[in-house]
């Protein structure tokens, strides 16, 4: 497979699954063309670790936020800390934030309060959001529609992480100024029903992600996911959209660089 340049727009490099071989994992990513990685916080400690990883490696950038499943017990002090972290060098996004009604690990009212705080932070900083939405589409669409209509930014408001939905829903997000994040799960047998939707999403509004160590490609199910597998997702998307992998690589990399202002 030819080597193209990619951006992994959503990883969790701080997680313990990478403690034994983090440097070797990064080397494999670079060797496979994944030249830039955004590592994403899920709470205050992991957001700080994301910043530390970015500071130690020129190819890594950080996103800081509180995941909806990690909202239980969140305090004003946590929000104040987040406001400080977002000002750190190489922080390019706010998140992972949003709503998750699948397991309800956190009370919904707490998820909503925390989500609105992230939206306020995006308004204050101008940084894009990384949105987590699981079985909460109706609420997320309503909240983001209301917010985006009032937000000063006209485009590049963020990315809908790990999207699995209809083309109509994707278009609603795109019209608000969001990009659509797709990962290796698009190659799972269970995702075949979404292939027409993935095919219909305009390539200029798609970014690639791993969500590693989670959601490995179909050929690596049961293993740890890692950024080096991004080319496999690009090839799968190319097949779904009947395009060349080079076209998918070029467009999604340009999209990621534009959304997260990686060329500044």
UniProtKB/TrEMBL annotation:
A divalent metal cation 2 binds at residues 132, 161. Keywords: Hydrolase, Metal-binding. Signal peptide: none annotated. One of its GO terms (molecular function) is hydrolase activity, acting on ester bonds. It comes from the Bacteria. CDD domains: TatD_DNAse. This is Hydrolase, TatD family. A divalent metal cation 1 binds at residues 10, 12, 96, 211. InterPro entries: DNase_TatD-rel_CS (IPR018228), Metal_Hydrolase (IPR032466), TatD-like (IPR001130), TatD/YcfH-like (IPR015991). GO terms for cellular component: cytosol.
